[in-house]
Amino acid sequence: MVCTANVCRSPMAEVVATQIAQRNGLSQKFRFESAGTHANKSKMRIDSRAVAVLERRGYAVKKMRSKPIEKKDFQRFDFILAMDNTNYSELQRICPPELQHKLKMFLAESKGVGSGEVPDPYYGNSEGFERVLDLCETGVQGLLRSTLA
Fold first, then answer.
1. If 0-12 CB within 10 Å is exposed, 13-18 middle and 19+ buried, where does residue 115 land?
2. Can you point out the beta strands (E) in the chain?
3. Maximum pairwise Cα distance, the chain
4. Cα(123)–Cα(3) distance, rounded to whole angstroms?
């Protein structure tokens, strides 16, 4: 899962995906990680508002640090999932041509979610983080459903 700075959306999606997979006995089948198209190398912590909203809904949040997407990630993973169109465009720019088929929008398999983008909550309030968590849960369910079909 890839967003911009890897401190809000993509780490939230990673936590949700990992724990939903665990709850459904799919831990051995899937591995999830997150990164950012513009994450700096100083390894920032996940946003405290993201942690708070995740914990309120019963997700356990481990200590997470941001990291940038790397060229090797395009080889390592079956899917590279962008949180929004800007991230998708940046991923298209840096992804090797022969691996472009791995790029997808995070919400591509989720019906009825509007624009298909996960909005960046960073400059907003806790309601924005709640909305992102709703979209992460919907996105993960759609992803697992389509992958297991």
1. exposed
2. 2-3, 35-36, 80-82, 103-105
3. 41
4. 14
pLDDT score of 71: 95
Residues paired with residue 82 on neighbouring β-strands, in sequence order: 2, 105
State the catalytic residues. 3, 9, 120
**Over the stretch 30-79, which tens digit does the pLDDT of each residue have?**
999 999 999 987 789 999 999 999 999 999 999 999 999 999 999 999 99
User: What fold does the segment set 2-143 form as a domain?
Assistant: Rossmann fold (3.40.50)
Residue 42 confidence (pLDDT) = 76
Domain boundaries, the chain: 2-143
Q: How far apart, in whole angstroms, are the C-alpha atoms of residue 124 and residue 121?
A: 5
Average pLDDT, the chain: 95
Query: Please, what sign has the CA dihedral across residues 129, 17, 108, 35?
Result: positive
